[in-house]
């Protein structure tokens, strides 16, 4: 399994959330507490949308197959790049090759996608799932992970028009193909996806026991509870973090996203999350 | 394009042909003379069958995404590993990702496969070709190269029973699928394949102008012509090298394999090569 | 030998000079024209000062031991990072190890340093040169290149107070130590150094035949001569590029820096360069 | 801290001890039990002397900066290389750069050296220790670890003539230089060294609490106690393993090497280890 983090809000130096917190994502690459594996050292990736519009709205992606904890380039980047919306992911391979094209986040046009979890018996379902990908997108699949195939299935199913719908149809297909191959409870996922404007975070598992996922409380609330926190001074109230596991133990900061639900950020006032239901 | 070398004969230290010759394969990684590209620095690989049977007949494969010319591990290996049958390949990517799973040689069970050339407009033919691979083998495809798909198509078409036939059927399919997508002359290849017992080398191009390929003369002939050559003293007369381009300029050592032909080593006395005809 | 590029002027996307020009630095990593080696594939590095002040004036450094031409992370970075002052370097090792700590540019505090050239018989002079480095700086030497030792010698000799003087004293020491070991003409160098405010470029060789080095004409001049150039529209007249070899063949754009001289950018009006004389 | 393993005895496939045992060294790279760090993912290395004499008595060294647990090349090598005497090391950096030249084992001529431990405040002692290295050997230091400097100090002090004496003099120097810099208890080490004929293993710490180190009982004893063990059938009685931590929990197999002692293998009958005393 893996650990990931997604940030949306006021432009922030990546370092502020990747390295500074007590139990930062980089710390989680060595000492994850809630993951199946405590070590997530099979590569990492960050994806960010530029604060100054560089890249014409297309996010930058930086990936490496080495562990995040000892990567000097990542530390350099984190200390010099500011972004209003960025993803970071540390990988623990469940068997697929250690290569950049298997590192998250995955990008297609303006879209970023990252995943923690797995498709059970993927090798048995892989071919049917790949066949369901839009033939025009098939050559875009560069790696050998279930996560990348899930992404291109979601793109195939209309990510551009309707994110929750596309993800629901992707999950519906995975479960149908799983059933056809006698794989009960084929899917396990927490997924983050963004187009640079908004951030969607999904938590779902076929058997109903999905990986942990948390979102941060409104910045004003956190500021009020923890005036000591360094970077909160600068950020807008709409700023949110979604993480595989909390970056610290501060009370009132982290809220668990329930089973079978998804969050959209910036959030509609009063709506922290909505139910997620696969479309068969 | 790439450069490759295949050796079959008396157990030899890899170093003797990878580093020692004037225009060795490692030298070719920086200064290829006959390739489309003079630099082949997008990764490399060696595959060898053990002289002492280690590995139960399965060849070892060592691959790296960095250039061969500065790789210390390759030099160490070459200076300490002896093998009666080994492959070496230096890569010049035509666009696909720089990752170990895209480096040659490819292995499946006891089989090794490497390729120099390309399938034209591969991104357009890729899906149909992948669909033609035995579903049971589909998950074995780990990378994104045309070469690996060609290999699993050949395995699908009976490499185990009939090597020239399986390769002919693979080429026939690629040309048919190419024609269906309006790609004339889709294939360009020099291929080496082995099961650890014998070595097959193919040269073919749809348009009839394939990459260069050479095989060495019988060791006794070379010894006679060039008593100065270091390692020839030790090797059997049946020993042969097949290379993308000659390792030196010695007259009488290197013979070009003609267009649309293939060689089998150990060779049947008097038969240096046979015609290669695709099977539609 | 290596190839390098230094940019100073209006904040620019790295991509504009690293990838866009006909004979860009990335192109030079494969096809250098004026270098001793045409291939510079033994690693690369970029160093940049943030346009928005991120990093508190300390430049970011991104290095990799793989070739620049196929590096996806570099391309991503170049397409999303803007900087008013940046260095880029592609390496051709003269024997020292292929490792990030041997890649240029080197950084110490706010300083960046990169070098093309070599100290002759460095292995014989290395110890004496290292001994001359300020003991407090000795542990900062992480790699095994002559270039890094030259940098820390310059820091030892007062780079902070007087750049040309510190470099002159460093060169003076190298030549004296060389003479002591019977190495005539020990030094060959083109060096770029910056503190984030100004850029200094030096060209010098003990025997008087140093590597090529060019600086660009004033932006207004180039704009006038070549209205077609894409990025010149945006840049200030003080903007300059210093390069191992021209990025194109446009007349009037590139001027050779003479033997034994150095340039300071931003330039004092009317002063393109000054003489460089080692201090024994 | 790190974990290491040294094997001496009947030629064995590296795989038999690197991957097969329940708590193999590769397993220890992810789940060390007795180390300061449970993860040893900052690179690894193996060094082996050829069973067939390839390399003229000089050992081969294979190193990588990535973790051992996911390295395919290491698995390939381990499955195809047999050796009568080999070292393997998984690294947990205490701060120095992640590069091949900082990976163990280190080699000089016919000698291999690896280390687990550290020199306290190394950055303060580094220069004086480097100065004590034979000037002719100084350029051999390619990396930035304390371990490599300890090795070249031992070579300087006569490793070729008297291994225990050279190591005792090296330790004596480190402790003297430490005292001069106000560093009490500067050294912490378990060291393995070999010339291809014999294997020496040292355990020592200035403060007397050194890292764990174990050696295996005579093969006949182990065979008697554990007839189930796979590879013991083939090995000679003189075969021994020395490891940072046991490869399993079998009673009677593993013996702790006491504080301040060293073992020589092949062992003199009745002499499992001797006392180790630094030479001031």
Automatic annotation (TrEMBL), chains A, B, C, D:
Any one GO MF annotation of this record: transferase activity
Xref: CDD domains: YafJ
RNA-binding found in the keyword field: no
Domain Glutamine amidotransferase type-2 positions: 2-236
Pfam families named among the record's database cross-references: GATase_4 (PF13230)
Domain of life assignment: Bacteria
This protein's record includes keyword Transferase: yes
UniProt keywords, alphabetically: Glutamine amidotransferase, Transferase
Protein name per the record: Class II glutamine amidotransferase
Natural source organism: Streptomyces subrutilus
Lineage: Bacteria, Bacillati, Actinomycetota, Actinomycetes, Kitasatosporales
């Amino acid at each position: 399994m893996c650990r990931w983090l997604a940030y949306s809000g006021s432009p922030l130096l990546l370092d502020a959330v990747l390295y500074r917190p007590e139990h930062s994502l980089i710390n989680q690459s060595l000492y994850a507490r809630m993951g199946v594996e405590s070590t997530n050292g099979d590569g990492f990736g960050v994806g960010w949308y530029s604060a100054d519009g560089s890249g014409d709205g297309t996010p930058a992606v930086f990936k490496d197959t080495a562990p995040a904890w000892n990567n000097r380039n990542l530390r350099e980047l984190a200390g010099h790049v500011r972004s209003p919306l960025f993803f970071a992911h540390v990988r623990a391979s469940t068997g697929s090759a250690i290569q950049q094209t298997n590192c998250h986040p995955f990008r297609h046009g303006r879209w970023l996608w990252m995943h923690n979890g797995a498709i059970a018996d993927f090798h048995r379902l892989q071919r049917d799932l790949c066949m369901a990908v839009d033939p025009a997108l098939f050559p875009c699949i560069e790696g050998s992970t279930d996560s990348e195939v899930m992404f291109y299935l979601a793109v195939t199913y209309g990510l551009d028009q309707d994110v929750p719908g596309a993800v629901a149809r992707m999950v519906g297909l995975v479960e149908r193909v799983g059933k056809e191959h006698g794989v009960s409870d084929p899917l396990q996922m927490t997924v983050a996806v963004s187009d640079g404007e908004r951030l969607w975070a999904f938590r779902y598992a076929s058997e109903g026991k999905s990986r942990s996922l948390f979102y941060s409380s409104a910045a004003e609330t956190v500021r009020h509870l923890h005036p000591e926190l360094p970077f909160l001074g600068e950020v807008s109230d709409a700023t949110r973090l979604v993480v595989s596991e909390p970056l610290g133990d501060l009370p009132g900061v982290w809220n668990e996203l329930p089973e079978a639900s998804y969050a959209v950020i910036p959030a509609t006032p009063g709506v922290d999350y909505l139910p997620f239901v696969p479309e068969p």
